[in-house]
């Protein structure tokens, strides 16, 4: 499953765009956006995001 952005955590810093080898992430209107057709689930963006704003479906608990 492709990564997705948790919008209320994203600060639009662009760190994720720099680590994505597949160029699947862009920053639009100061929010990161993941292109699901380009994302290859490498999870580099998830591990690198300083705000914890990128995740994959199923990784977030519904508390």
Return the structural class: alpha+beta
- Tally of helical segments: 2
CATH topology: Alpha-Beta Plaits
Widest β-sheet, arrangement of strands? 1-4
- The oligomeric status of these chains comes to single chain
Morphology call: globular
Write the CATH architecture name. 2-Layer Sandwich
List how many beta strands DSSP finds: 4
The N- and C-terminal alpha carbons lie at a distance of 22 Å
Low-confidence sequence ranges: none
**Rg, please?**
11 Å
Beta-strand percent range: 15-25%
Q: What is the CATH C level class, in words? A: Alpha Beta
Description:
- The protein has helices at 15-19, 44-48, and strands at residues 3-5, 25-28, 31-34, 54-56.
- With 63 residues, it is of the alpha+beta class.
- It has one domain (3-56): Alpha-Beta Plaits (2-Layer Sandwich), CATH 3.30.70.
- The strands form two sheets. Strands 1-4 form a two-stranded antiparallel sheet. A two-stranded antiparallel sheet has the order 2-3.
- Strand 2 and strand 3 (31-34) form a beta hairpin.
Short summary:
With 63 residues, the chain is of the alpha+beta class.
Topology diagram in text:
Layout: E1 3-5, H1 15-19, E2 25-28, E3 31-34, H2 44-48, E4 54-56
Antiparallel strand pairs: 1-4, 2-3
Features:
single chain; 63 residues; alpha+beta; Alpha-Beta Plaits; two-stranded antiparallel ribbon; two-stranded antiparallel sheet; 4 strands; 16% helix
